[in-house]
Amino acid sequence: MHGALMTDPQRATAGRPTSDPALDTVPQPTHAAPTTVRAETSGTTTRSTSNPIATRPTIAATTSTPRARHSAAATRARPVTRSRSAGWPLEPLLWLQTHLTTRDYTIITWLGDHGVLTTDQLAFALFPSVDVAQRRLRVLTELGVLQRFRPLKLDGGSHPYHYVLDHLGALVLSVQRATDPPRPAQTRARMQTLTRRPDLHHMLGVNQFFTDLAGYARTHPGATLHRWWPTTRCSQPGAFATDPDALEPAYPAPIRPDAHGVFTDHRSNDSGRPEGGELVTVSFFLEHETGTEPLVSLLGKLGGYQRMSLKTGHRWPVLFWLHSSTRERHLHEHLTAGVPPAVPVATAARDRTNGQNPAEAIWWLHADTSTPWARLADLPATRPQLRSPEVTGSVARTGSDVTR
Description:
There is one protein chain. By secondary structure, this protein is an alpha+beta fold. It folds into 2 domains: 92-197, Winged helix-like DNA-binding domain superfamily/Winged helix DNA-binding domain (Arc Repressor Mutant, subunit A, Orthogonal Bundle); 202-378. The chain contains 13 helices and 11 strands. It has helices at residues 8-13, 66-77, 92-97, 102-114, 119-126, 130-142, 167-177, 184-195, 200-219, 231-234, 295-300, 302-312, 325-337; strands at residues 37-38, 47-48, 117-118, 146-149, 162-165, 224-230, 259-266, 279-288, 318-322, 345-349, 364-365. Helix 4 crosses helix 7, helix 5 (119-126) crosses helix 6 and helix 5 (119-126) runs parallel beside helix 9 (200-219). The longest helix has 20 residues, at 200-219. It is globular, with a radius of gyration of 28 Å. The model is unreliable at 1-64, 68-90 and 384-399 (pLDDT under 50).
């Protein structure tokens, strides 16, 4: 109403954004007004004349008995434990368990598995806008769930914030996975290692590929990113076993891909468009290339995939995500001149895709002349066994398999 006076609570909430319901689940800390304390000489304790909840009763200075003096000293010496943000209650880990959203658990799981993610990557994969992502990530940082940093940008300007797990986030992840909780020193050492990794650019490139797929699945009905595994998960014994009861799980896979994914999308129809196409699930291995390895080394990796294919029967495509179209052309020339690979090989060059999503028609499938560029869902598909539990939401709490 024009001319009406606004109270302090009304003024504080007048411009509050309401676009993200997840933000409303975290109450902001409140600070109690100063409390006037009046000592009563006839009793043994002081009592507050206002806001009795904010001020804990303390032993009055006029007590004379030894027991009362001992109680007074113990009360004054007892510290009040609070979380990093003043005003939040005791035991922040227990409090966080009831205030973190499903999307927050996805962020924690991804950072636990994949190390570092930027604001832009998380915003595209999980949020409706960058502004909403920035606000939620700031809340998680203030709570001690995440920590952020910005690498030096030598050509001027600044990089977006890069996020890693802080200690509370690492504790939440250990609870969800029923593993031993890390010590604070271990969390600090991991954060320092991630921020100073010489291959940070390579790690972010791999993560960019999968956050692009997650963002595509978020905005396209029917598309789903089921699985996003890091190198360490792929190298575990029995990771790709078809029969958990066989002797096969005792042996690790002879491969070290940069990542492994399982993705569902519509296959291209007769006009080359995904609309109305059949839904297919494609499993693949990703080799993210930055131009530092010779082509001979890249081609040598195919031997491990061939051995795994013979052992497990999985003929899943190997995707080479290359930095230039020139290198892509040379790779296909080497493949044509040598022995045909035993597993499907597809390539894409980042300098010719013009920012297109990896799910779109950008893949050059070796020895396939049926179409110039294939969509990810058009690649040879073999549906894997998804042994991790499927859940409604963004991430399975007990593993790295992800869903829409």
